[in-house]
Amino acid sequence: MSNSEVETAPVSELQEQSPQAVAQTMDITEIMAILPHRYPFLLIDRVIEMERKKRVVAIKNVTANEPHFNGHFPGYPIMPGVLMVEAIAQAGGALLLTEIPDREDKLMVFTGIDSAKFRRPVVPGDQLRIEVTVLNWRSMAVKMHGIATVDGKVACEATVTCMLVPRAPKPAATKDQTA
Length: 179
Description:
There is one protein chain. The chain has helices at about 10-15, 30-35, 80-95, 175-179; strands at about 45-50, 55-60, 105-120, 125-135, 140-150, 155-165. The chain is α+β, with helices and mostly antiparallel strands. It is about 20% helix and about 35% strand. About 25% of the residues are buried.
């Protein structure tokens, strides 16, 4: 192989070979394959960096047509702070759930939110950059610190703890539903 040729392998293969720092990205379709959230509550649009079990960077494009802006606040739309904290958790979930083989049978739920701070309003047209760093990782729980910025300025930061719980079983189809 010449110096100009680069051997490539699927990300999963690379992770098996080198579990340390494999950079990875995800588009919205890949995020939706990992996270159970859907519109209007899927709050990350893209993952631009991922370091296994250590950190993730995600993007949220804030648009005027999001339903919370109708009432928060009429004439002065501001993204609710709790949704920025949720976006931090979802970015962390994208990182955590990539490590769980049976993730379709699990949900990641909040167990704590600490030291949440809101520094500046986030408005339609902003791009939220969400950087999440793992502080403590256990098999079924994780503690993470997230910082959400707009144009390099901190909008929100929080430490969140989450754990995996079994997803409720789907109800069996009845005769009427199968007909």
